[in-house]
Amino acid sequence: MRDRAASLFVLLLLACRSSPQPLKPRDLVTISPASGAVSAKLVPDPNSPELKLGPGEEYIAPQLMPGNPMPAYPPDLIPLHLPLHVVAVRVTFGEYDHAIDVAPSPVVQSTDDEYEAAFQKAVRETVMRWICYSAKIRKFRDGPGYRIMTAERWLKTFYDISFSFEIVDGHPVVKSAQ
User: Fold this and answer.
1) DSSP states of the chain as a string?
2) Which range of residues forms the domain containing residue 96?
3) Residue 170: which CATH number?
4) Interval 43-96: pLDDT, tens
5) Looking at the domain assignment, is residue 10 inside a domain?
């Protein structure tokens, strides 16, 4: 039991020494339009404030949980064969990993038409179930040959995410908006 605890402690120390990876825009899921698969694209906000860390502080970047569900094309709109429709939202996650707000994105324009509410509803209902491992700031104190974490602060996190909805060969497809 004691060996197990010591091993766990060493692993935790090594994990704390690794530097956090910066968040970069990327596709969340690869898609195949022929299969009707779904994906989304993270959109960087050029107006995001720069994070300033104090001495001994380390930033741990947020991460969307793999397997978060993707929105479905609203079933009542499928027979209309509408042109491409883009929905861009800003999803805010609280300190405890759950979505707490979904609002229009200030960095990407959504399609503005009579069907906007139905597409927004599909996105909102889905992303409110998403989980994001929130960003955090850890403070460390150096010891002789090791570091001790003395504080951890969880941060609210937001992502701007865009989805495109379209009908391809008669099948509804939701994919990454370019």
Assistant:
1) -HHHHHHHHHHHHHHHHSPPPPP---BSS---GGGT----EEE--TTPPPP---TTEEEE--EEPTT---PPPPGGGGGG-PPPEEEEEEEEE-TTSBEEEEEE-SSSPPP-STTHHHHHHHHHHHHTT-BEE--EEEEEEEETTEEEEEEEEE--EEEEEEEEEEEETTEEEEEE--
2) 20-176
3) 3.30.2420.10
4) 777 777 788 899 999 999 888 888 888 899 999 998 888 888 999 999 999 888
5) no
